[in-house]
Amino acid sequence: MRIKNYFTTSRSINDLEYDKRSSIIRNPDGSVVFEMNNVIVPKHWSQVATDIIAQKYFRKAGVPKSLKKVFEEGVPEWLQRSEIDSVRLNVLDEKEMYSGECDSRQVFNRLAGCWTYWGWKYKYFDTEEDAKNFYNELFFMLAMQFSAPNSPQWFNTGLHWAYGITGPSQGHFYVDPDSGELTRSTDAYSHCQPHACFIQSVSDDLVNEGGIMDLWVREARLFKYGSGTGSNFSGIRGSGENLSGGGKSSGLMSFLKIGDRSAGAIKSGGTTRRAAKMVVLDLDHPDIEEFINWKVVEEEKVAALVAGSKTLNYHLNKILSACDSVHPENDGTNKATNKVLAQAVRDARRAYIPENYIERVIQLAKLGFKEIFIPTYDTDWNSESYVTVSGQNSNNSVRATNDFMKAVEMDSDWNLYWRTELQKSKAENRAPGPAKVLKARKLWDDISYSAWACADPGIQFHTTINEWHTCPAGGEIKASNPCSEYMFLDDTACNLASLNLVKFYDFESEKFNVDAFRHAARLWTVVLEISVLMAQFPSSRIASLSYDYRTLGLGYANLGALLMILGIPYDSPEALSLTGCITAILHMKAYATSAEMARELGPFSKFEENRENMLRVIRNHKRAAFNSNKKEYEGLSINPMGINKRYCIDDDLLDAARKDAEEALALGEKFGYRNAQVTVIAPTGTIGLLMDCDTTGVEPDFALVKFKKLAGGGYFKIINESVPPALKKLGYSDSEIDDIIKYTKGYGSLIGCPHINPQNLSDKGFTMEVIKQIEKSLPGVFDISFAFNKYTLGASFCKNVLGFTDEQLDDFNFNILKALGYTKEQIEEANDYICGTMTIEGAPHLKEEHYSIFDCASKCGKKGTRFISPEAHIRIMAAAQPFISGAISKTINLPNQASVEDMKKAYMMSWSLGLKSNALYRDGSKLSQPLNRIADDLGDFELEEKSDITVTATSDIVKVAERIIHRYIAKRRKLPYRRKGYTQKAKIGNHSVYIRTGEYDNGQLGEIFVDMHREGAAFRSLMNCFAIAVSLGLQHGVPLEEFVDAFVYTRFEPNGIIIGNPNIKMATSIIDYIFRELAVTYLSRTDLAHIPDEEIRISPVDSLAKLDKDKDIEYYEERIYSERIVEEKVKPPKETSVTVDHSIPVSIVAAPNGNGGHKAKIEEAIMKGYTGDICQECGQVTMVRNGTCLKCMSCGSTSGCS
Q: Are 553 and 494 in contact (CB under 8 A)?
């Protein structure tokens, strides 16, 4: 092949400017996770890109200080690989023999050099000049952030070629390019693992090759080197299905949970990122219902662990404190005499704390314990709570055929089949008998609810995928990689690379550089093809099939930023046409290059048996570029979205797309293709940050304001880099742009700030040194309060000058600004000035008709209200999909308020527009993200200061009430003259006790009589007076619950075994017995009885009758003595009129809201557009959705494939 210079025609790679920097990644508490000094990177790179290459892609050890070239016949000296120069190395001290990479040029050289070396050896270049041009162009594009390969290339490629690094074989295989023979690898790096995406088969076998346990081994080989994998598990028998030995299968889910644990234990390279895997299941599998709801149930377990651990910790320590609350001479562990303990025990029982734990703590108190440690859990992805549950290390998808989708539309039946029955029926050439029949809409409802509740499962549209399949002779496409962009045959692999679209936009001419884009697409198609040649694979079958089909995954990033720069709203018809044009150019140029390589090297080995189908698919790609009549498409059930010429903003782009489509088809018809697939749209998580992209793949920006790291730690907050050029293109002046930018990202300074400024702070005792320190930190914070902490101000200053205590400073919720006397309004106004509003809405000078250009996937900042609709996400995917061999890894974002019906509509729309897969993400659907759940459930159960709010005559009580006030009103309610009730006789010890009750007409208890001993005995008289007092309380409205809580467990003699009562068998006193009996009979308090619930016998009188609230009740007199406040959950109000007695003031008390440290951080993160997840690598809260995965905006950690 001939390779011409394009980027390096007038500029040598030696002329590029570089800078020396430091890279530091810190935990939120300031501790250093990673630090590297003297990092050399291109001068124009951001600090985030610097941190990523230093922390993730530099080889940290094993790079020898002395190297020598290895002579190979026919290989130019400049291209020869290197190995250790032992003679020179042995002269050095042992510690100086080896080091790590610290210069980005080392990485660019080993990548470009390794690709060129393998390309030269196997005749991909016509001349040595072509090879040199190839090396220079790739080096330039890497350094200038035009493009980047997937992460495993950065991890592994060129280590053997550049440094002679080897290692023990890990069980990999490769096909020898010279002989075509399958070969077992003898070491880990001479043939590296550059592929990011794998699809692996799994058979219904436990331990043999290709079976379930073998899959976990193969997955481990991939995860170790930074790759991801997906499998369709539909061949494994369902729960209860017959085994050959006569037993029953434990079912698919038991094995999935094992595999999930296995994946969770592995990180690629030990530190780089967590395992990435996809689990796919057909919708006719007998375990499909359990699979769909898998993650919903597991998330509920996490919620129970988090809430339960905090509740347990709170109540047990409260009981322990209560035991120590009395005078030392008194017995603090006696519930009868220690009222504080009795109340603590009651509260614990109401919170369902186990009785044995309550008693255990009281015993510990007797032994002198003052505090007990109960571990509490949180919803961080890496926390112990998530480790204890399954399903957290994979993306789940269900496989939907057109038959299923039509069954949903028609509300038809849907059959589930035993796996063994499918095999038997196929062998016997008959229709299979269903194991279970259910409505398709039942499954559809389950899928939609599960996606609404926990963002899984996604849907892969099986029929659409296979109608665009280039090689059906090899079998059906059944699964995908973890992010759903690579879809091909089982046991194949794909390596990815992406082009940064903004780099191909000429800001001076305001045109997209088609020639540069075509040139880059051609070169990177060759790079990915060479990577197949030099690669090793985790199994012999994957090595063989990947060599036979040679699938590639070229894509792009930064489409959302390009649209913004061009002034095109993401949800506009123009955006759809532009997306179609650019994707078509990339895709068709890649296929044309593949045909060009086929001319020189021959087509892939399985091309001829798939020739007709492959050319049919290419013709359909071409028809979409020409927006042909729907009837012209071949073999498609759902026609794709073609490029609408009417909305093309640049005719040159459309002409280029159509010309490339014609060329790709013509060359393929003549020479065939070197590769079965050539393109995907990957999530570009880590490499997107490495290229300083504002957006990834086809995604819009998640928020306008990002927070990137400074050299030396912390964050640097910047506005989306596409906003200024977009504003300039829209015609705004420099001064207007400056005002808009400052409105959005703030001034980052105390100078001129209202309320909180140098003068004001000086008056409060701040020295100039401290003020300078605050000023220095302000550009990197996203809330002003984050600059006012003990780390910035200094602990000694906070204590000695400001007078704060260590306890205050160590409290994460302690707000120094509030403690200094600033009001909430003053802090917010200062925050808007310093940190900005983080939204463009309401910015000075900006016209409302331009708002849509800057819309993002989520609301921006506190004041932002706009976001891109789910339908816009789906349509932009539909515009790109007709020009992609694989699929698109993208998250379809929905707001928190989205309903389950909205999920169904998004799924159905995706299918109807011809998408191959779909992943929905409702904001707040994950435990670690929704703000409202954290506030409600994960607080520390501490009441905030009570704030009385008087409800005025015009207030709607139903809407504002968070507590219901129970007033004890001295209205003595008359009992009827003829009363119902019952008499219960029992014996306690030698004492006979008669309890007689009197009831109101509705069954409510109104009086009690207690008879015992002979007439005139003092004890009898005391009990009689006690019964009268209780009766008066009941008639004045004191709830029976109050008496029960107060007197149960009272201890004095006589006590012991109860004879004659069917429900109560033991009592600590007569009083304890009386109120146990009343509680069981009138309150259904079965917890106070001593026999099973179903055996409890009650009075013949129906004591559970509902209160007759409408009946007129006669009272003696009314006098208010006291009132109390009890918490009660209030259901959403109905449209009803409420009459308020204006003469009675009602006090509303704020609901409890205990704020934990994690909650405050997550609240701020979500407010700024992040998901709220905490990065497992650097501990920061700067995680964003990226395709179906997550990435960290600080360190670049990602759960995806690239």
A: yes
